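Interim report, section 4.2 (structural modelling).
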Amino acid sequence: MKQPIKLKGCIAILAAAGFAAVAHADPDEDQLTVNGEIEMVTEVDAPAHMENLDTIYSGWRFRSDETQAFQMDDFDNPAMIFVEAAAETWDIADGFEGKSCSSCHNDIESMAGVRAVYPKWSETAGEVRTLEHQINDCRENRMGAEKWKYTGGDMAAMVGLISSVSRGLPINVAIDGPAQETWEKGKEIYYTRYGQLELSCANCHEDSYGMMIRADHLSQGQINGFPTYRLKNTKLNSVHARFKGCVRDTRAHTFKPGGPEFIALELYVASRANGLSVEGPSVRN
Amino acid sequence: MASGVKPRVKVPKSAAAGDTITIKTLISHKMESGQRKDDDGNLIPRSIINRFTCEFNGEMVIDVTLEPAISTNPYFQFDALVPEAGEFKFTWYDDDGSVYDTAKKIAVS
Amino acid sequence: MELTRRRMLAISSGAITMAGLGAFPAFAAVEEEIAEFTGGADMGEGGITLTTPEIAENGNTVPVEFEAPGAVEVALWADGNPTPAVATFKFGKLNPTRSAATRIRLAGTQNVVAVAKMEDGSYQMAKAAIKVTIGGCGG
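Predicted structure of the assembly:
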């Protein structure tokens, strides 16, 4: 299915642009190493469950050299401002239990590997949980603290901190067993056309990745780099805020960040990145 | 003092006397340009870091005047000569009168 | 700060409207400010190197870098910004390369101009055109 659509679109754009060289450009060949030591997998065979793509690429590979460079050194990566703030929050007691994150989890390094497996089925909750839900569950039920806004700054920073210690590890979310039903719901959302523009996630990020959408180089929409610092709004952006932006841009009523539809979609989209490295917090345009 | 302002600097811990080192600095600051309007259409007043300096043992290395065209979270990278062991002092000046500073010692091998 | 695409558009279209009124007043403003910096002296070329991206994926954070061996002061302008001045760097003896890198805001496609005042009192200039793109769906 993919190839004919892509070719047709390509020819149309080439014709319109008078054979402009940038009308269609595959991901570049650059390799991502962060701080000269964390080697990232930015290209790998697609997981078996994906029917329409052979190879998956990190969004980093679709960005310009300058944007890519922001992510290659933690000092150059503005997302680290927020991560450092969250590292302080990690040790600060909040709520009536008088506990901080570190009261139970000790050093942040103990969270290595966590980002790579979320969203994840929670046996106690009997549902698939995102990292944000787990953080708020800790805040509410273990710390006796106020919940954070799902896509708020405190939350994005904490997710960024927890992601940062998993960088370089392969995304590996489970899609079978009790998570399967949620995963299938997410897959259905991924392929459903929404809004006045009648666009599904797949229309852009599966059928048309590598093409230019106006001046933007379309990626596969992978979420292994989230939360991501966007040059556009100079802050950390969470997965559900990005989903919301995309759905809104199809001119549809969006789903609620933190709600069941976006949880399912996050699980499905995360599973499309199984095998790519955790990059969060990344830098994108 | 504007909220959430935090200076960060990256300086090697040691160098050979006479070496040139590269310094990176970043301060978290919104750099409100004075060009934007709020949701009610009122102009948001300018609020930026307007000057950044780096000194080594009291001698000037670089002295920068910043305008609103410098991006959020101002970033500078520059070189410095290390004639002897000592201390780099970094200072940022805010429109609101606040001054933020930090220092880094460097050993000479 | 959050400069959304819409706001950037508002800023750039403002600049275009202004430009439509006369002979590119934005650029005239830069000429004037450069003349003020140099005292109207002639400017040479080749003594300062300006490194910028050809295309910036977002105008909010554009990396720029210059190197001007022997300069005591370097000033940067962006000729299409509502306020063209960007920054001025003064160098002390402990700065051996007279180079620096920073990140700047560009309200649309335009030129960045760097002028260096050299130790002998002469001036050197470099200019770079940067295309600033606007994202896909604006999300």
